[in-house]
Amino acid sequence: MAPPPADTNGSDAAAVYPAAGRRRWHVLLFPLPYQGHINPMFRLAGVLHGRGFAITVFHTDFNAPDPARHPDYRFVPVPVPDGMSGPAPVAIEDVVAHIDAMGRACEAAFRDRLAAVLEEYSRDAVACLVADTHLLPVFEVATRLALPTLALRTGSAASYACFAAYPMLCEKGYLPVQVQDLQLDMPVNELPPFRVRDLIHIGKDSHDLMCEMAARLVTAVTKLSSGLILNTFDALERRELEGVRRDLAVPVFDIGPLHKFSPVGGSSLLCQDRSRLEWLDAWAPESVLYVSFGSLASMSARDLVETAWGIAGSGVPFLWVVRPGLVHGCASEGSHQQQLPEGFEAATRERGRVVAWAPQEEVLRHRAVGGFWTHSGWNSTTESICEGVPMLCRPYFGDQTGNTRYVEHVWRVGFEVGGDLERGSVEAAIRRLMTDKDGAEMRARAGELKKAAAVCTSGKGGSSCMAIDKLVTHIMSL
Ligand code: UDP
Question: Which residues contact 301 (CB under 8 A, 6 or more apart)?
Answer without folding.
Answer: 327, 328, 329, 330
